[in-house]
Amino acid sequence: MDLLFVDINIFESDDDDNDDDYNFVVRRPYTIRNKPNNIQVWDDTEFFNRFRLKKETVIHLLHRVEDRLLIIRNKSRSLTLINQLLLALRFYATGNFLRACGDFSGASISTASRIIAKVSLAIASLSATMINFPETNEEIRTTQRAFYEMYRFPRVIGCIDGTHIRIQCPGGEHAEEFRNRKGFFSPHTQVVCDHNMKIIDIVARWPGSVHDATIFQHSRLRQRLEAGEFHSGILLGDGGYPIEKYLLTPVLHPTIVAEERYNNAHIRTRNIVERVFGVWKRRFPVLSLGMRVKMETVQDIIVATAVLHNIARNQNEEEPPAFVDIPDEKIGDDNVNEEAVPVQDNNIRQALINDYFSRLHN
Questions:
Q1: Is the pLDDT reported for residue 25 higher than 90?
Q2: Is 232 helix (H, G, I), strand (E, B) or coil?
Q3: Cα(266)–Cα(259) distance, rounded to whole angstroms?
Q4: What is the pLDDT of residues 89-99, one digit of tens each?
Q5: Mean per-residue pLDDT for 36-42?
Q6: Which one-letter DSSP state was computed for residue 167?
């Protein structure tokens, strides 16, 4: 329905004969858009294909964020809380222009932009409870046991890697810092996952030109590892990371059988983080197709989709169909010069090779 408002402004005239002249200024028509009830309109399969989560999971999510979404409602009174949430999920699921997502939900571009930003912030705020390392002794032992049962690599509590989230040029004097080595703009996001393919740590604030090792060097996770919070727990990383007593990388040039066994177990175990990237980005293609929103919103969307990925894992959600080809955003690693690594930082790896993998039989 289009409603036409007309302002009638009477202007004084020097000509007495024109005293009765009027100037009509026509405002832009106000459009009352249709607000679809997407929960009822789509069956379970169609809903899952469009929003990448099951209806039950979306309702569960709404209950967890509705208090924060009430803040949005004051500025977006025409959309119910569930429609605000679904608008954001539709954006994550398609990476479409704001106009297309707004049209899908019956919202203007400005309203869609505001809602996506606020809903992303609300979901990202759940990261304090949804994205966590194992902390108690029992949790650490359970995680280490689960990783060991995969490919017999001991003491592992997580696998670490970086991935690039495609965005439009952010503009400003520091824009080129976001251009990565493949030539597109991105934040370089550090992720650690566990044996269940859940994201247990994420850092999404660094530009795409920054190396994996630099992000880790300045992360709070490294400080916690240095402080011994996770006891004997270790991370597995690729050649882009330095060797530490709590972070092990592959042997660059294996020469003995034990080193080959170590590398084989390391690579097969660490591959789980690559699988996480694939599942995460297929569920939320906006992470690969490119975002056209402010950088603050980009960071919130990255964390929000990580939270949603973990919720989907907790709810045993199936992987959504891949309607689009997700490009490989992995950028080749800079191998660390092992000769420059302090000897003490290589002791843990060497001890594992000599005392464990040398005795391990296939």
A1: no
A2: coil
A3: 10
A4: 999 998 878 88
A5: 86
A6: B
